[in-house]
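Reopening this ticket.

The earlier resolution said the output was attached, but the attachment link was broken on my side. Pasting everything inline this time so it's all in one place.
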Amino acid sequence: MKRRTKEQIRKLMLTIGMSIVAVFWMMPVAAGFFTSFKSNQEVKMFSEYKNIIPRTWTLDNYQYVLNYAALPIQKLLLNSFIVCIACVVFTLVLCTLSAYAFERFDFPKKETLFWILFALSAIPNVVALVPQYSMYSSMGWINQLPSIIAPNIADVFSIYLIRQFMKGIPKELDECAKIDGANELTILRKIIVPLLTPVLTMVAIFKFSDVWNDFLWPSIAISTPDHYTITPALNLLNNAYRDTGRVERSLASCVLAMIPTLIIFIIFRKRFLEGLDITAGIKG
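Inline output:
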């Protein structure tokens, strides 16, 4: 009984602590969201009004951002979607194939090779910026979307997640399929991949969010507005709006940039949470 009470108290304290962290994390996000619906006059009067929620709601900031001709946000969002979807598709295909090879095939020094790759992934990406730029420049990809897509088509961490989840799928299923005449590709496509849906969803969300929010490399690789993705373009938009004292327009553009990733997480949150159990390929 005492043990159960202690467990309940521990869970309650953990819930309270996480709730406090969530509130502090959400405060600046909520403040930015509400400010994006304020008029410029109300923003300038914040020191007097002390109000987070707008006294008078307006959509003028969003209308201005959506009609800003110098950096059309619709084109920026389209570029971001093209890059993100391409990166997600490549990552799911290549990382699933790699994880299947590491988990189901036996070859010399398999584990050593895997952990060497995992260790190399710890090297900061900034180390490779100069040779990466030089390589893509020689290929004629600079200022083109492929220069942003190529560095993000696979990553070792995604391979690790998929492989760990795959460990929970009994190998007896593979053996039964082979008895029925299935080859490796058929086993992967018809047996393994359907069972990997939760972790593949999680990997897809991670990759989409990571590429969507990437700032450094797209800022270096792209210099023409027609090929900008949303995150580096936000920096230019924010500078332009701050120079004119229109911080509410800057926040409106940031809110628009947040919406796609938020919608994707809401739609796939159940699968995402299932994918967090990386050792459970099959429950039972």
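Reporter confirms the inline version is readable. The chain is about 70% helix and 0% strand. The first helix runs from residue 2 to 35.
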